[in-house]
Amino acid sequence: MSLRDRLIARIAKGGPIGVADFMNACLHDPEGGYYATRPALGEAGDFITAPHVSQMFGELIGLWAAEVWERLGRPARARLVELGPGDGTMMGDMLRAARAAPGFLDACEVVFIETSAPLKGRQEEVFGDRARWLGSLGEVPWDAPVILVANEFLDCLPIRQAVRDGEAWRERLVGVDGRGKLAFEIAQSIYFPPHPPHEGEGEEGGDVFEWSEALIEFGGLVGELIARASGAGLVIDYGRDASGLGDTLQALRGHARDGALETPGLADLTAHVDFPAFLAAARAAGAETGPIRSQRAFLRDLGIEQRAATLAHARPDEACKIARQLNRLIAPDQMGALFKAACVYSPWLAAPGFEAE
Question: Is the pTM of this model over 0.85?
Fold first, then answer.
């Protein structure tokens, strides 16, 4: 029985389910979930992330990590932790670039947080005994400083949605329509979001408000880890630099948008990240956070344009390709504006690229 059929049967028996429950099933069902049977990444997959656009992205993140290590006082032991490492492309680029920092690679234990068995298998083929695998962030020990990176990880955390109906909010649910197909519907009972919109927002009928309990919980875990172990955590994703309204749930399949309910388990389901909520949770756990920056501003500060010029000079036959890659990463109408960078760090640490403005 397909995941779609099992979801329909579940709803027919127990009633409509929340959007978060639907996302969890589509992404993590052990038999039919997207990450249990995930297809190839990059051009051959359903979407392309920044590390697959250009080696420059991972190289600069690697140099950022090495600079954090320097500012931590060059500790003899540290952990370089990546959340959702995919096929390991970013970490490979990071480690290659970080060789420029004497002592950094010798000091760092590479740790991958991965729950997908197929992806873990690919990572093991590439990194072998050079890395350690854990199933959750909570398993990372606090006995050494942590340098954490996560690219396009938070957008997969499940969200809940509420729809404005007259004077009240009602939760959006996934049910089954008269044709036996999955369909959105609105709960009959009034719902009170735990983190409601600001006053004056969400007064129009049909407005959608999103929040993610999983995101807030995860922000607390990151904040606690950084506060207890010391270090810094860098997250890059597409999302909002201010909480707001809007339906951002989307399904990606074959590099194109698909209907969110059309192909359960066969498409990647994501939503825009509420960066303010994530950072507030990290601060509540004892860490400090910096300003939310556009990917464009962050990568430019790290020197991506200079790196592109160096690569183009070394590979003149690829100069046009490198220019296109640079444009994809930092142009405002490409990934430069929609994607944001945020940092969680020890209160005493000046995190590179996130010093107080």
Answer: yes
